[in-house]
Amino acid sequence: MKNQLIIVLTLFLGYSVTAQNTKEDNYKTGVKILEELSGKGAAEGLEKVFKDVSPDMTEYIIGYGFGEIYNREGLDFKTKELLIIASLTTQANAKSQLKSHIKAALKLGATPNEISETMILLSLYTGFPAANNGIFALKEVLDEANYAASSKLNSTDQLIKNWELDGFVMPESIVASPTENWLYVSNVNQNDKGYISRITKDGEVDNYKWVTGLNNPAGLALYQDKLYVGDGKELHIIDVKKGKLLSSITSTDVVSLNDVVVSKTGQVFISDIAGGKIFALNNNKLEVWFQTPEINHPNGIFIQNEDLIIADFGVELSLELTPNQFGSMYKVNLKDKSLTIIKSAYQLGALDGLAAVKDGYLVTGGTVSDLFFINNNTKKLVGKFPKGLADISVENNVLYAPILFSNKIESFTLPVAITKAKITDDNWNRIETKEQYLKLAADNFYGDKDGQSVATHDGQIFGVFGGKILTGTWDWKDNFFTRTSKIGDFDLGYDEIVIEVTTKQMRLTLNQGQGMSVVYDKK
């Protein structure tokens, strides 16, 4: 709460009433911006602080400071934060406010190097003591957040940054040409018509508005000199040689088309993130190809071998999802449409972008800021990004990452750990419902050197430990696995157990998590 209060007070310089928007509109806008900078609940916390002292001050700070001044066009939020940092550094007496705005700048995508260079430039005008204090404040923020200070390294793993490029307007998807030096970028441009940018793989701009006149374009896929674009109610087809829109196809069944993928034989699939469907393009018509209650909001899609890989956003289309609402990854067989969950990606996050790498996938998850490596047996957090990591692309060991809310594209060389897929998983996930257990653990054998057992999908337990037969039944009560069993002639009785799993192990803690724990390997 202290940081939220500090960051808003430094924005308030004065107050005047304008006729452009109502006070209510400005206040709602201010709340949205404040919570983007300081987190959910920041506005409510500010209101509580001033409620008994000066409730009007909250109105001025949120409605005027954020809703009007901070929300003005002409400068993006990251630039505004760098300017505020410069001002506070020059004042040399506002360390707490300075640290709060450094945190906000980092959250918006500013790098430690950019903030450091700001301080160095200020030394010429405000003097070295004030600039040095600014550097020290930056160091404290980085230390407190355990942030990797090098501008060349991502904070979680050795993703080596090659370049970054600004100038986009909500870039959602990027795709690399397999035959030429081009990257194509969709710009959602939510408040106006969207468009496609074309840049080089070295981070040079060819044309920000290469193809215009679209709505809010999202997912992209290339096939035989045609660029397929998921864009709301329409699937666009663009001639990449001529840079011209060839056709736009829609269907009354469509709600909001998102990602696109094309098979080796030219079959086009499109995810309808809002409608919960997968469409296929057949004879220039969009037809529902797949739908299941298990997948609420299919987002990123990819084809590998005989399967369509689907990244589900989650239970709701919201950036405020709780972990038990997060989406999972699935495989759908292209021939018989059988559905299989990828257990290592169960409730991984608000899933979006999806790309293949050696022996697995990269997928954007968490709250759309985390990058994970996933395969059938592994889950590994590879990197953390500013909020808005969207539909990524990988080519020749290079990751291209659109950062939606920072209006930029970043390029990284992938770490050796990913390219060789030598990764271990030490992330324990508690199973809290019977449905989760059936998906993640039922019918799998777990054990150690003394034996192994299985809890089947129909509620039976059997196994062998120490040469003796284990039998019993299982069920679920509240958020505990319940077991009634015996081994040989010895009655083990009834117990309620906390179950936690990784992709390779299971941990059981008896007596509702208060008793003895034992770890078994997956067999």
TrEMBL record:
Gene3D superfamilies xref list = AhpD-like, TolB, C-terminal domain
Q: Identify the stretch annotated as signal peptide in this record.
A: none
Q: Which InterPro entries match?
A: 4CMD/NDH-1_regulator (IPR052512), 6-blade_b-propeller_TolB-like (IPR011042), AhpD-like (IPR029032), CMD-like (IPR003779)
What domain of life does the UniProt record list for this protein's source? Bacteria
The name under which this protein is listed is: Carboxymuconolactone decarboxylase family protein
Q: Which Pfam families match?
A: CMD
Carboxymuconolactone decarboxylase-like domain residues are 55-140
Residue stretches in coiled coil: none
